[in-house]
Amino acid sequence: MDTLWTDFINSDWHDFRDSGKHEDRLVLTSWQHRFLKDWKLTASVPATEIELQRLQSLRKLLHNYAITFVNGSSADQIDWDELNKIMAQVPVIKQWNHHEGSRQLVYLPLTQDWTSVMASIVSDFVYTVLDQDIHRIRICDNPDCRWVFYDDTRSRTKRYCEDKTCGNLMKVRRFRAKKGLQHPQ
Ligand SMILES: [Zn+2]
């Protein structure tokens, strides 16, 4: 399952095949438009050079947390002051909202720019840490892919971002490796 903050992290894209191809999609206007649309966020596109630098350092910070959680660390590793600082840059109002049959209290940012997008990303990360299970955060087992995702399966055993792509590819690789061992050239 992709969440707002994992989708953001995965803008640092690696080809799941072993081509070694790597692309920072965050800098692409097409990625920025798609990301804002999918998560119903507003900011001007293209992001400025300074905004991109701030987004990239936030991505690095959250990616490092994801790695420490995958390695079994607890939420004690988190620098809450740093995250609070990012969220504190954006004033919000609370609003009762009745949308598609569900009633909820929502927090609406008073500004709509990349700073408020960053605050939303951080809030989503904080939500995962506080209300979800950080030990369900995974990094795809295909070492070429490195996709970060939240494992929401009942069995908690999801190893690949997608079974159809990375799962199948790794199955073929294991099969070939096994064959190679049995029949050395
Ligand atoms: Zn993958």
TrEMBL record:
InterPro entries referenced in this protein's UniProt entry, alphabetically: ABATE, ABATE_dom_sf, Znf_CGNR
Listed transmembrane segments: none
Top-level taxonomic group: Bacteria
Residue span(s) of domain Zinc finger CGNR: 136-179
Name this polypeptide is given: CGNR zinc finger domain-containing protein
